[in-house]
Amino acid sequence: MTSAARAGKSVSRESIGFQKHDHGSCISVGLAAAEAHCSAEGLRFTPVRRKTLEILLQEHRAIGAYEMLDRLRDAGFGSQPPVAYRALEFLVANGFAHKIERLNAFIACAHPGVDHSPAFMICRLCDSVAEAQSSPARGALGEAARATGFEIERTVLEAEGICPVCVEKADT
Question: For helices 47-58 and 23-41, what crossing angle results, to 10°?
Answer without folding.
Answer: 150
